[in-house]
Amino acid sequence: MVHGRDIRYALRLLARSPGFTLLTVLVLAGGLGLSTFTFSFLHTAMIRPIPLPEGDRIVRLIRVGDGRRAGVDEVDLAALRASMRTVEHLAGYTSREVLLGRDGDTRVLDTTVADPALFMIARTPARLGRTLLPSDAEPGAEPVMVLAHRAWQVVFGAEPAVLERRVTLNGISTRIVGIMPDGYGFPIVQEAWVPLPARAAAAIQADTSFLSVGGRLAPGVTHAEAAAEATALLRRSVAARTATGQPMPVLAMRVESYPAAQIGDERTIVFTSLNLAAGLILLLSLVNVATLLTARANERIRETAVRLALGASAGRLVVQGMWEGAILCVAGGVLGTAGAAWGLDAITRWTRANMEANLTFWWVWHADRITILSAAAFVTLAIGALGALVSFRALRLNVREIMQDGSARAGSRRDGRLARVLVVTQVTTVTVLMFVGVLSAVMARRILDLDPGYDPAKLLQVGLAPSAPRFATSETRARLFVDVQARLAAHGALDGALLRTRLASRDASGVFEVRSPAPAAGRPSAHVLAMLGAMSTVGVRPIEGRLFLPADDWTQAPVVLISRSLAARHWPGRSPVGDRLRLAAAGDTSQWRTIVGVVSDVPYGNPLARDRSAEAIYLPLLQAGVDDTDVLVRYRTSETAGRQALYQVLGAADPDLTPGYVHRAEEVIRQAGMITTGLAKLFGACFALALLLAVAGTYGLMSTSIGQRTREIAVRRALGATEATATRMLLLQGARQLGIGTLVAAPMLAALGITATQLLPVGAVLTAGVGLLVSAAIIGVILAATWLPIRKALRVPLRTALLLAVAFSFGPKSIGAQLDWQTRTKASFDFAALAAMLR
User: Which H helix or E strand runs over 183?
Assistant: First the structure.
């Protein structure tokens, strides 16, 4: 009953001030909703088990060597499958594009070539027909395939009669045996599944075939236990085939959930940093609400003191005050959760409309149990924080001082210190957030303005990694690459063909050294690439000297080309043609290569990495001894014809050559820009909300602070202070708090700036400039928010200000008696005498 009365009392107080209640709820809804949305979004993307039966036990096994993640060698997979006990149903798979032929029409399908045990891991039956069976992978088995629900709808119009129909996959007659349920895409997102041919362990050659591997944890087994067993078995398998005296590579196996494996090692940084940004905005919201509640409590401070003086317990008053904050937090949490749910649904709609073919099947965002639980946790945190503030103020009230002062709005030194701390907190938080936001905008702008250095239209790229035993030597691989390039160049559907392999990045230390009359200092860096074919396919054109010739193979003297920017940096004012260099970082330290030409600049490297540059060195692919390469072609008419030409040429060159995923350069750039734009808008909205909260909070704090100094302002004006003098004094006092907040934020900005200059293509000058501009802008905006309540206070007429000074000097009893006397005698207030007395 007591708590019921307290709740009704709090509701009546909130109902009396609808503007205050609405503003507070909206501020809380912004912070709580953003925090809930961010956590729920990242939980779905990185943590939540995939939506399959006992999805928390489905794991991916990843081989790690020298800190790099890779697929598992098929030989090692056979050893794991034979001995592993902590993971059941180990299945290897790889992704591949295939050409589906049907009724004279050809279409490209993203296909998973998988061990049939993959469907035992998923434990999901087909919607129509069946899934792959172990017998489908046996030698001589009939070629079969299982279609994804989306492919069934898009390609076959959802015809039930498609089951058991025959189509051609890369020219091979194949029977459709099953249709999977809507939304199923395990292991990632695919349009079809075909069996991976089974081979006897003795027939598998090491280091020729690498697969992704999935499995299901045995009951009661942890990820760490499975990883320890898999690591031991992997090392034993590798040691068994390592020659005596040869060093053993440092290898390990990781066992991770599919969401964790999909994001990679950066998931912890991404999860922490984004939640931290949302948490800072929630902190701003709580600071603003604390400001509003503090101002509201100051208005009722005399009432509180009277109740304490009459015997009310401090605990009871604390509970009453906390109910008001709790009601506001719950209302804000409900509104914020509704907004978060809308945002999650909007993200799902946007990704399905723009990126469905590239999304993992479990990335479906909506409000779920985790959304509700995270919202409840954030609301509880907010209630606790605001309740602590209410308790602190209630338990530290000086009843005697308040009753003697008689002021309902005077405020204490503690209140002033609290207000200053809140201002400093807001300035620090919003400065850090806006600094990160501006740097994010700079990076987004760079991606949107990215110049690939060539025309991406009608350009396809696919990886080529020959693994058959007949390609075990560098010479046999080189002959295959020559054959593939010649066939592609001669194909009528193609307008250019290039084989390209990247050997070293510019961020590698000491990529090359120069032997010339004026050698470059030390070992400078550059991107190193090996080329075979028409270099104009990717925009590389001759400027001086010659390009590579067909005769530049492994039997001829080693030669290189260099880019114009590299020549300008290390051979200023003279021609580098005829000089020689040696590639240290590319494993080519023994022979000097002659520079035979200078070519145009094309930038290389990640657009968000510091190593992006047009300084490049090119080698003939036939002199590089590479194991794999990328094939780039330009098609003349249609994309389908270009893809079909790729498959035909590779199949004609060698039946075992199956290309991986074919990328369309235009689509890759378009999606990168679309994602960047979407993220920039999302971050921009978040940081705009943070700035709005900071400005509103500062305005409220300064309004409260200036309201508490009404007596001082009135006395100063009565004694002759001008409005300009009072304005300057109050602004300078507010500027101190801004200065403290900026100083507190400075080391944080410095740490973030140093990190940005090390990881991103931004210089120290740009980063420092952004920090100074953000700090100056925040100070300017918040000073404007401080100036407004000052002007409002100074617009009060002097007659009213002096009356307020009397009220705050002598208390409500004295001023009440004086006003009562005026009412009875109809006398006017003697402001001149009051001014003289105050002097």
Answer: none
Higher per-residue confidence, 687 vs 300: 687
Cβ atoms of residues 250 and 59 within 8 Å:
no
Whether residue 298 contacts residue 355, with contact meaning beta carbons closer than 8 Å, is answered with: no
pLDDT band at 105 (very low <50, low <70, confident <90, very high): low
Measured distance CA(232)–CA(255) in Å, rounded = 13
**C-alpha–C-alpha distance, residues 644 and 651, integer Å:** 11
- The distance of Cα 159 from the centroid of its chain, to the nearest Å, equals 40
Phi, psi dihedrals of residue 187, rounded to the nearest 5°? -85, -25
Nearest to 530 by CA among 570, 568, 477: 477
How many C-alpha atoms does 486 have within 13 Å on its Cβ side?
Answer: 9
Question: Taking phi first (over 0 means left), then psi (-120 to 50 degrees means alpha), and beta for anything else, what does residue 79 get?
Answer: alpha
Nearest-Å Rg of the Cα atoms of the chain is 36
Residue 544, H or E segment: strand 542-545
User: Which of 557, 563, 553, 525 is CA-nearest to residue 620?
Assistant: 553
pLDDT band of 702, cuts 50, 70, 90: low
Whether pTM exceeds 0.90: no
Please report the DSSP string for 300-321 in residue order: THHHHHHHHHTT--HHHHHHHH
Q: From CA 390, how far away is CA 413, in angstroms rounded?
A: 17
CB 371 within 8 A of CB 40: yes
Mind giving me the DSSP string for 17-82? -HHHHHHHHHHHHHHHHHHHHHHHHHIIIIISPPSSTTGGGEEEEEEEETTEEE-EEHHHHHHHHH
Residue 602 CA to residue 460 CA, distance in Å, equals 18
Q: What residue has token string 């939304």?
A: 183
Rounded to 5 degrees, φ, ψ at 193 are -130, 135
CA 63/CA 60 separation, integer angstroms: 10
Count of beta carbons in the 10 Å neighbourhood of residue 776 = 11
Kind of pairing between the strands at 251-257 and 616-620: unpaired
Q: Sorting pLDDT into bands at 50, 70 and 90, what band is 307?
A: low
C-alpha dihedral (80, 81, 85, 90), degrees to nearest 10: 110
Judge residue 285's burial from the number of C-beta atoms within 10 Å of its C-beta, 0-12 exposed, 13-18 middle, 19 or more buried.
buried
Assigned token pair, 701: 């704090």
Predicted confidence band of residue 231 (pLDDT cuts 50, 70, 90): very high
Three-state DSSP class for 627? Answer: coil
Chain segment 477-526, per-residue pLDDT in tens: 888 999 999 999 999 888 889 999 988 765 554 567 676 544 445 557 78
